[in-house]
Amino acid sequence: MTETPSYQKPSGSNIKEYASRVVRHENFVLGVILGVLVAVFGVTTRGLFVRPANLVNVLIQSSTRSLAAVGQAFVILTAGIDLSVGGIAILAACMGGALMTATPGYLGPISVGTGVLIMLLVGAGVGAINGVVVSRLRVSPLIVTLAMWQIALGLGSHFTAGATGKPAVIIELPRVLAILGQESIGGVPTPVIAFIAVIVLGYFVLNHTTFGKLVYATGGNEVAAYLSGIRTRDVKFWVYVISGFCAAIAGLLQMSRVLAASDKLIGTLELDSIAAVVVGGVSLFGGRGSLIGVLFGVLIIGVINNGMNIVGLNVWTQNLVKGGTIFAAVAVDAWRRRTRSEG
Amino acid sequence: MPGIKKKLSPLLVNRELLILVIVLVVLIVVAGILTEGLLFSGNNIRNLLLRTCIVGIVAVGQAIVMLSSGIDLSVGGNLVLASCVGAALMTTDPRLNLAPGGNPLPVAVGIIIILLVAIGIGTANGFSVSRLRMPPLIVTLAMWQMAFGAAYQATNLGQLIANIPEPFAIFGQGIVGGIPVPVIIFILVVVVAYFVLNYTSFGRAVYAVGGSEINAWFSGINIKRVRTLVYILSGVCVGIASIIALSRTLCGSIRMVVGLEMDSIAAVVIGGVSLFGGKGNILGVVLGVFILCVINNTMTLMEIMPFHQDIIRGGVILAAVAANSLASKK
What we know:
A: mainly alpha, B: 2 strands
């Protein structure tokens, strides 16, 4: 019991320093915020919120958002923005739905494998158009992706209209599709597995591959990156392809959860994904932030959304709260940048 | 021949404006043919002009913000909130009136409050962007969301607020000297904006800040003041548009306008203002507003499905920015 450990015991000041580093670390702050939110909703809903079934629910609901948020994080890390993710998700889902449904009057039915492949290709393709326009024509990403959002949403509605000419809900989709959204493997729901997998994959790419380094370099200082031989235009192109691809998977996941497709399948995915990324501490000015933070951001937004639903707030009041959350998160980010540049 | 050339020279000098005028004229002819003349019916012209005035006034504010390389996505939410608060204070409907004591406020006070609400939101945007150095996209997006949430409360959870005093109707429905009042207001706003941007030091500062912030800073321009003021001016424009929008229907509702932020940005972009700031002209924006509104109106007259309209509108915006980008590369 009295033997000393082989490593050097940290002195008092080191522990203090270490502790203060942990406390000052942004992910610690995010963790505390998450804990406080869970506690607050737990109390205000008289324990309803913290039941295990509901907590799993939060994770399932967050899965779609996490997919879009990871793609969004890649784009924002290069100091860009992708407002089209919600439109792309709906376009992919509605087009895939129209291709795979057994209901007459639509394009289908084709096999599930081909349908899913087409969905993913459409997502990546629309992302590629965003990427080309942003990186080659040097147009502000905001306006490109805003216009693309509208186009994708319109096309999505077009596919749900089928032969009738009026937007409708596409049903009669193959049961196999439900595996992704409704089953569970080893007791863990598949959406939660997808949620964790995409974060892990994104973390790996950003932190342990050359491409990840290029993303950070391009966002941190584009001119410096260009001068050190990085093809910044190509990096900027690929992040939009990744974002579009992720958005298409988000659409697939959501479609699989309800086994239906419509132009109202996903609410404000662009807003929620940006919120999650920004709350997670990724700077909108590019080059700073991590996917661990994004994970916290997704969870925080998920807890807020779910908690407000259980408390029974109406949609408009929820918007008020969500807008306030984003605003506060960005204010903190801006404040951090100011103190850093001045101190 | 030289005489004619000289006469036309001011128009020819600005090639971009000339192109926009040609596009607009061609568009009107094509739209007239496609709608079999429905475009030119008296009723439709009135509708088209009114929508043009509301979008146009907001677009002028948006253009000033975008010239300084900012963006204001809050305009739609801001307009709905200002109109709904004004409606809730002026209405004689006791269930919905929010004025202290339930007595409807006089129209003049209502107008002032509408302007104050809109300017207040503009000021909050400007303060956050310039002093807190937050990105305008997120600031105004969050503000847009919060404004809708607040408007929902002001309308007693999303109800229609009718019974607004009749005198208020003059701003949206009145006619002075044969010209509808909204058109007169729109012209005034454009003239003032043109004067401010071209003949005042503030106007030059807006262009300078948008063109290159560092150069502007080295020339001694108070960047924070300029950045705050552009959002306040956008708020003023939204306030004026709110009065017209509310006056036109005499009914406040959370669904008063749809897609105003998109339309105003599209009009500014079509009008040739660069999204990276520093370049563009308010007359181009006015032409952009007309082009956009004629397209929208024609699509409605042709009974094109709303979602197909979205596709076309998005395509028009993409084409406009791509054309701008390619033209400026040469």
